[in-house]
Amino acid sequence: MGRKSFEDPPQAVVKDGVVEISGVLSSPHEVEENKTLKRRIYRRTITDFVFDEDYGEFFSGIAPPDPSELIFEGPLPQRHLRWAAYTDRDVEIGSYYVYWIGDEDSEKNGEVYGPMAVKVRDPEIYWTYKKTVERMEAIKAAYPGMAEMRQFGQSTRKRPLYGIVAGNPSKLLAFTGYVHAGESGTEILLPALERLLAVNRDLLSRAGIAMLPCVNADSREKFVTGHPSYIRVNPNHVDLNRNYPVFWDLPGYGYGLDTNAEWSVTYRGPYPASEDETQAVMNFIKTLKPRGVFSFHAMGSICADAFCVPSAAATDRAYCQKCLELYMPYSKGFREINSEADVRLPPNKPAQYLTEWIYQEFKIPAADLEFNGKDYEKYGYTKRDRTDRKTLDLFRERHYQGMVNALEVLAQQP
Ligand SMILES: [Zn+2]
To answer: 11-119 domain in CATH 2.60.40.10?
Structure first.
């Protein structure tokens, strides 16, 4: 811009289903000048962005705004001291938008700032960190003595990573969510737990549930507040499911990437368990000593019942059997299961996965949950980030039934 009127680049962020375009005015005297500086905000609705195929570069070559796309003209409303913001309420859930901002001076030189791209996601399907913590606090308050909320660590940006533990602590099933930020977790897990607490108290006296539902909390927050494309890594650009102290020197080339390369979204990190989030998960598992671990994945907001088990499951028949004892009943929450052959149990390739670390350390059943092939045919649109409330409810129901079935089996184990 010919004349710099913001201290940092302005940004567009989604809050409670509306878009806020904001910036910090560049110097104290700008606060006075902003009262007269006429700014213009332009917006375009994007209809051809495809989640999981398109990423940030999609927006970089986009044509500049047309005068017909002007949605605001005037001094930018000053919210607090040097912070000024405009709220665009005329947006639709599920839509992608790009914004530009210019002012009289910059536009004389043909310059506008942007594009700033966002997706407006349904806040009932995509929960913020704040909503997640409030929901956990509500569970704790509603079921004193039955549900306990505990901090197991912190995120890269120092958000406390809370877990919730309910029921019999000697026979726990443990769940983790959002190891990868653009995948699944909280919105399925916490409602399922609430329902267990409301209607399965006897079962919970015999077996229990532990959840660390929002592991990659910082990147998840970026995602739910408007980042349009899929996010996998944490703020240090580390893949949190390649950071565990196991098979450390083994390279991995999945997805045509390289786990040893910093540029890769499967980057394992600078050293074993380097990431705060990884340490929180390890603390969660070591402290609670669960009988089985379910780690939610699958691109989009919903995962299903394909259990990606540790590589050793391919040869360790006894371990595989232990996994099946929990995963068969869990899968019955999703579909008709008549034999072991009906359960999807693909072994991973050895890598620095959570499941591999759990196998090495504890030999308890551990799986990354992904989409099941048959579900993908029917609900593949969720991988395109097009989950609706009805589909979310259906999968909450399936996971809840799976939990009830697996807890019943666990309750009967010695
Ligand atoms: Zn994943």
So the answer is: yes
Span 327-358, pLDDT tens digits: 999 999 999 999 999 999 999 999 999 999 99
Cα 341 to ligand 1 centroid, rounded to whole Å: 24
Domain ranges, ordered by start, for the chain:
11-119, 129-412
Cα(130) to ligand 1 centroid in Å equals: 23
| Ligand 1 centroid, distance to 399 Cα (angstroms) | 18
Q: Give distance in angstroms: CA of 13 to centre of ligand 1.
A: 25
Q: Nearest CA to 143 among 167, 120, 162?
A: 167
CATH T-level fold of 129-412: Aminopeptidase (3.40.630)
Q: How far is the CA of 97 from the centre of ligand 1 (A)?
A: 26
Predicted structure pTM score: 0.96
Q: Tens of pLDDT along 112-143?
A: 999 999 999 999 999 999 999 999 999 999 99
Q: For residue 133, report the distance from its CA to the centre of ligand 1, in Å.
A: 22
CA 298 to ligand 1 centroid distance, Å: 6
Other CB atoms within 10 Å distance of the CB of residue 247 = 21
Q: Among the listed ranges 35-49, 192-206, 267-281, 385-399, which one has the minimum average pLDDT value?
A: 35-49
Q: Determine the distance separating the centroid of ligand 1 and the alpha carbon of 189, expressed in angstroms.
A: 16
